[in-house]
Amino acid sequence: MALGRVALVGAGPGDPELLTVKAQRLLKEAEVVVFDRLVSPEILNLIPAGTTRIYAGKALSRHHLAQDEINSLLVSLARTGRLVVRLKGGDPFVFGRGSEEAEYLARHGVPFEVVPGITSASGGSTYAGIPLTHRGHATGVRYVTGHCKENEDLAHDWRSLADPDTTLVVYMGLTNLDQITRQLMAAGMPADTPAAAVENATTPRQRRVIGTVGSLPTLVADAGLAPPTIVIIGKVVSLAGVLDWYQAGPGSVEDQSASG
First vs last Cα of the chain: how many Å apart? Predict the structure, then answer.
């Protein structure tokens, strides 16, 4: 039997119209789709009815399939001669463990390709009316993870991340949001630095909470935001009121003290 192949495909942040043309084609051609928890229902609806679907979702301490099991599954499926799409929220190579899966496939001689997707930092910030860079507000942007192993603190260079001229985007930052904001303020970031959290970005369920580094944890908790949510910190957040082209959904919270 001929060896199949695996396509590691980025599903983007949620809006199906943000899928790349290549991603859409591969979803139509796939014989098996192995998908993550962060892939939106709107995108899953694009998978043809006769295609085999396998859920491989992961959340904090709740893994439907462990990463090692997913790696082995991809190899096993490819060895049946089928085209396998590994569908991952956002971009496979941005906090998506896509590179780990690609390494495993390469070690086992399985042909693979990688299809980039719009990462949630880009899509989510844009749909929230927040540019990642803007003249006079930010000359750079940094992406970091807000996730760490259980009972461990985040090991970031907080002084570097507190740079006032750089936008900071935190993936998976809800659980440790209080720690993140406290560490940034301890490293010199002013408590009134504009900050936002965007839940279910780019989908009809999008909600955004806008405040400051000092107020964001309380605002997020009061609003009941849940994953998937990205956190955006920096002066660019002050532009959200003017640039909110998508409109904040029901349940969004706007702290007017954070807007400029």
Answer: 63
36: annotated active-site residue? yes
User: What average pLDDT does this structure show over 74-89?
Assistant: 98
Q: Is the Cβ–Cβ distance between 216 and 195 less than 8 Å?
A: yes
Q: Which residue among the candidates 22, 58, 244, 255 is catalytic per the annotation?
A: 58
The pLDDT tens digits of the residues spanning 179-237 come to 999 999 999 999 999 999 999 999 999 999 999 999 999 999 999 999 999 999 999 99
Catalytic: which of 15, 22, 28, 36?
A: 36
- β 32-35/52-55 pair status: parallel
Same domain, 49 and 148: no
Q: Which residues pair with 114 in a beta bridge?
A: 8
Looking at 61, 81, 115, which one is the last position of a domain?
115
List the structure tokens of 223: 């609003």
50 is in which domain, residue-wise?
A: 5-115
Q: Quick count: other Cβ atoms within 10 Å of Cβ 187?
A: 15
Cα distance between residue 143 and residue 223, in whole Å = 24
Radius of gyration of the chain (CA): 19
Lateral strand order in the sheet of 229-233 = 140-145, 166-171, 229-233, 194-199, 207-212, 253-254
Residue pair 94/172 in contact (Cβ under 8 Å)? The answer is: no
For residue range 116-168, what is the model confidence (pLDDT) as tens digits? 999 999 999 999 999 999 999 999 999 999 987 665 778 899 999 999 999 99
Distance CA 137, CA 11 (A): 30
58 is catalytic: yes
My answer on whether 216 and 191 are in the same domain is: yes
> Do residues 252 and 161 both lie within one domain?
yes
Q: Which of 80, 115, 150 is the last residue of a domain?
A: 115
Query: How far, in Å, CA of 61 to CA of 194, rounded?
Result: 31
